[in-house]
Design brief:
about 80 residues, Phosphorylase Kinase, domain 1
Length: about 80
């Protein structure tokens, strides 16, 4: 897959939605200097694990997570990444 297929970001797809305020609270206690408000967008063109752009006024971060639903035991090994 070429990088040309990654064509930017979009709003988070409904099937990949998560509680953004809970994530912001979690990050606030774990990332030095993290301060909201948090803006979340989903990268387009990602085929395996949903990948998100997290933005604050001071910094940007990338979040990858497993897709929802039942997964094969060997699939989507985020932990090894």
């Amino acid at each position: 897959m070429s990088s040309a297929q990654f064509i930017g970001t979009t709003e988070v797809q409904e099937r990949h939605w998560f509680d953004e305020s809970a994530l912001a609270s979690y990050l606030r206690g774990r990332l030095p200097g993290f301060e909201g408000p948090l803006r979340v967008q989903q990268f387009e063109g990602v085929q395996s694990n949903p990948t998100f752009l997290l933005g604050t006024p001071a910094a940007s971060y990338v979040l990858r997570r497993k897709p929802p639903g039942k997964l094969l035991p060997s699939a989507h090994a985020i932990e090894r990444e």
